[in-house]
Design goal:
The chain is an all-alpha fold and 521 residues long. The chain has 20 helices and no strands.
């Protein structure tokens, strides 16, 4: 049975860890760019985008493993759990070997395939090789995540992942100070942290879930067939996700220049960090919905959809609005002069991201229920549209980076306004009006005063220093919090907040009492 408290713990733990990663990621970006240059940063981003497509070799094996391992674990069918886990792991190992072989050939030809500056060509081969190895090991060592999902302990998995990310950023700062900074060193650090994270996950999961055999593979035809069939359509969603997140860098390199990749990546960094914060709520949903369906608790799925959508929007919408309105002073104080294009791109990438995150919960619920065929076809169609529109706007209308950003925006808006809400409400059996009223309208209303205050500040007293910028953003966000508390939080949620507060007080009291007892002894 899925407990609400477990979902809340998963979300709060992951959200806290991700908040630290987001802050460090934003502040480490200028440190890296100013040391390896725009073209070096563009090369690193381009390699990451290219080998994101290599991750597609695994197909949709990951989501398929999550579904079947979670289902069998919930039903306490541990033999079945290990069959599906082993079958999926076999498929991941094969995909990893294929990815590793391809990475060698792509790395050798990388400077000839892509537009790489002459001075960076020798480095580009090494960076591409390390990027391919990182992708291959990420595929082979991904399977422990399934165990954390199945046991509803995503909080532990996220703490390990986010902790490793914090370590990676600290390592970059330390080594860039002690050693000559280079894009190759950046790639080495990335590969090392993938291996460290996998080791921590294996050690933790071995003690937490002893029923799961972590290092075995299984050739069960039934398990391989079920995993393959389910993964076929989730593979389409995986393709579309990689196209949305990685194709823009490749298009910019081919249609504009390598140096243009960097400012676009810096602007996109903010939308990615917004996604990181919001997907905390979404990523715990798929295994939870699978477990609810397996245990027959279908009536709870409607609440998971409505509340999850509302919480995702409560996080993403005000932050996107504030970052968009204050984009100019943020970029000026963050990167310095000469990056005005980054401030122009930020709203074009942030606002469409809100539409994606708004329906992220719908995507997770439908995946948990097994409606992956529809999601795969819809997602791939949207990805193709975004690429086509981007190319037309750049080549025909000469809109440059703005055209690439508008291509992505078109797909997100069309898909998540006109199709996803209607289809999801039909499958979960909830009226569209009830869904929008409970999950969306109150959040939009709570954001309006915050947006008006931010616009007034930018109109009459635009912040010129970090201190004034922080005060402006904090003041606007505080107004949103107050408004959201009265408009968006219902009685059930306020009771949950009181329960968490009381439980935290009891824990503190017990810790204080133990301390007093130790001192007395």
């Amino acid at each position: 049975m899925v407990r609400a408290n477990r979902l809340i713990i998963n979300v709060l733990t992951d959200y806290s860890a991700r908040a630290v990663v987001v802050v460090l990621g934003i502040f480490s970006a200028p440190f890296i760019v100013h040391r390896i240059g725009l073209e070096g940063y563009g090369l690193f981003t381009l390699v990451g985008s290219v080998f994101a497509f290599a991750l597609l070799i695994q197909g949709g094996t990951g989501p398929a493993m999550i579904r079947y391992v979670t289902m069998t674990y919930t039903q306490q069918d541990y033999d079945g759990m290990n069959r599906y886990y082993g079958a999926g792991q076999l498929m991941l190992v094969i995909a990893s070997v294929v990815c590793l072989v391809l990475s060698f050939s792509v790395a050798w030809q990388f400077p000839h395939i892509f537009d790489v500056t002459e001075s960076l060509r020798p480095q580009s081969r090494w960076v591409a090789l390390l990027g391919g190895m990182t992708a291959a090991f990420s595929i082979a060592l991904w399977s422990p995540n399934v165990g954390f999902y199945a046991a509803q302990r995503y909080d532990i998995s996220s703490l390990i992942g986010n902790g490793t990310e914090v370590f990676r950023m600290m390592l970059i700062v330390i080594l860039f100070i002690l050693i000559t900074p280079s894009v190759v060193l950046l790639a080495i650090i990335g590969l090392s942290c993938v291996l460290i994270r996998a080791l921590l996950q294996y050690v933790t999961l071995r003690s937490m879930l002893p029923e799961l055999r972590l290092l075995h593979v299984d050739k069960s035809r039934e398990a391989i067939r079920d995993t393959w069939v389910f993964s076929t359509f989730t593979f389409l969603s995986a393709i579309s996700y990689v196209i949305h997140t990685s194709m823009d860098s490749i298009l910019i390199n081919k249609l504009i220049s390598l140096a243009a990749v960097a400012p676009y990546a810096l602007a996109r960094l903010w939308s990615w960090q917004l996604r990181n914060l919001t997907l905390t709520i979404v990523q715990v949903t798929t295994p939870a919905v699978t477990a609810l369906a397996a245990s027959g608790e279908h009536w709870k799925i409607e609440e998971v959809l409505v509340r999850g959508t509302k919480y995702s929007l409560m996080i993403s919408l005000p932050l996107a609005v504030l970052l968009s309105i204050f984009a100019e002073p943020i970029v000026r104080l963050w990167l310095g002069p000469g990056y005005e294009i980054v401030a122009t791109l930020m709203p074009l990438l942030l606002i469409p991201e809100v539409f994606f995150l708004w329906q992220g919960q719908s995507n997770a619920v439908l995946t948990g229920l097994g409606y992956v065929k529809f999601l795969g076809i819809l997602s791939l169609s949207g990805a193709i549209i975004s690429v086509a529109v981007g190319i037309v706007l750049v080549v025909v209308f000469n809109m440059g980076l703005i055209g690439i950003a508008l291509g992505t925006a078109t797909s997100f808006i069309l898909r998540n306004i006109f199709i996803m809400p209607v289809y999801t409400c039909r499958k979960v059996k909830i009226s569209l009006y009830k869904y929008l009223f409970r999950s969306t309208l109150h959040v939009v209303g709570a954001t309006v005063p915050c947006a008006i205050l931010s616009l007034l500040i930018m109109q009459y007293t635009p912040p010129q220093t970090f201190g004034k910028l922080i005060l402006a953003v904090a003041g606007s966000y505080l107004l949103y919090i107050i408004t959201a508390y009265f408009l968006c939080i219902d009685a059930y949620e306020k009771a949950k907040v009181r329960d968490i507060k009381n439980e935290a007080g009891h824990i503190i009291d017990r810790m204080r009492q133990r301390g007093n007892d130790s001192i007395w002894k």
